[in-house]
Amino acid sequence: MTDSLHQPFVIDPDGVAPSQVPFRTLTTGAKMPAIGAGTFGSDHVTPDEVAAAVRGAIACGYRHLDCASVYGNEDRIGEMLKTVFPVIPREEFFITSKVWNDAHAPEAVAASCRKSIADLGCGYLDLYLVHWPFPNFHPPFCDVESRSADAVPFEIERFMATWRAMEQLVDEGLVKAIGTSNVTIPKLELILPRCRIRPAVNEMELHPHFQQPELFEYVQRQGIVVVGYSPIGSPARPERDKTPEDTVDVEDPVMVEIAHKHGIHPATLCVKWAAQRGQVPIPFSTKKRNYLANLKSLCSDPLSDEEMSRIASIDRGCRLIKGQVFLWQSARGWEDLWDLDGTIAK
Ligand SMILES: NC(=O)c1ccc[n+]([C@@H]2O[C@H](COP(=O)([O-])OP(=O)(O)OC[C@H]3O[C@@H](n4cnc5c(N)ncnc54)[C@H](OP(=O)(O)O)[C@@H]3O)[C@@H](O)[C@H]2O)c1
User: Fold this and answer.
1) What does the pLDDT average to over 321-329?
2) How far, in Å, is the centroid of ligand 1 from the Cα of 170?
3) What confidence tens digit (pLDDT) does each residue in 41-77 have?
4) 71 included as an active-site residue
5) Ligand 1 within 6 A of 121 CB?
6) Domain 3-235+243-337 of CATH type 3.40.50.300
7) Domain limits of the chain?
8) C-alpha angle with apex 141: 150 to 318, nearest 5 degrees?
9) Is the minimum distance from the CB of 208 to ligand 1 under 6 angstroms?
10) 294 in ligand 1 pocket by Cβ < 6 Å?
């Protein structure tokens, strides 16, 4: 932990009043700020640097944090939050965490949740997500082409056993709401009718070159709030997650032109467009200039209908987080994780 994180926390005078930031209302009645701070350091930003960035983002007005045990930094973020909570009460935050794929066994779900709460020092979570719908995991930094011998395809009853443990966390008051991440329509069609407590949120990859219109609309129709991850197209994602076919949202001429017109960076336009479309973007940024611009972009100067239509038209169906490392031995390729033909691959 760098010393600066232990300095007394002060609100940044350049920031945005949290009351000016739009919010979404979950089925539970809870209010989620319509932008959150991502916390995944993409293997190149250290846990302390992530904690410092989140501290700066909070000082500028962010009150929604997207955390996960697998990001390996919840203890550092928690250490930093100790200096924040005396100034901004815990209740003013919306804090998400996620159960990793190695903790899907029902007894492991509760243990993992309690560890995240303890590491973050936040008492309870506002939202707890099942990070991926597969209990498949891999060593950190492993070769993207490697396949675990234990990896298995999606199986509804196994998933529901995990989900029932998630529901129990709500019953026990450890978490206020639960949700899914990286699921598809065919999987949700199986999951939703079996839930005692339905997901309040679904977190999914969303950026201008990957708009997932069918899943986005399906989730919204279900009354589930959509959180969009990698909203800028994750330009700093690890090299192992890049393929030659990947496109770059912030270099799209339509994004560059509209951003220029509004006097913002195309990255900020990605965030602004996301929030105006109705998803909750959770951009990651280590720079005040960037995270402040992203936050401010939600508060004024909306995009016109024509600009929204033009951005809708640049969807390339370009999935960046393909999840190859979660494939089981007999899977054909990463497409099998995403049920592209409407059926769940076995
Ligand atoms: N549920 C899941 O499975 C899942 C998967 C992936 C990600 N996530 C979550 O989503 C969050 C965001 O996704 P991500 O981190 O992959 O990527 P991202 O938010 O799309 O992109 C982050 C990158 O954009 C840059 N950036 C941010 N704002 C900018 C601005 N205004 N101008 C120029 N550059 C800007 C940042 O650089 P600087 O640091 O230089 O600003 C950073 O390198 C993660 O941190 C994590 O919390 C969830």
Assistant:
1) 94
2) 29
3) 988 999 999 999 999 999 999 999 999 999 999 999 9
4) yes
5) no
6) no
7) 3-235+243-337
8) 85
9) no
10) yes
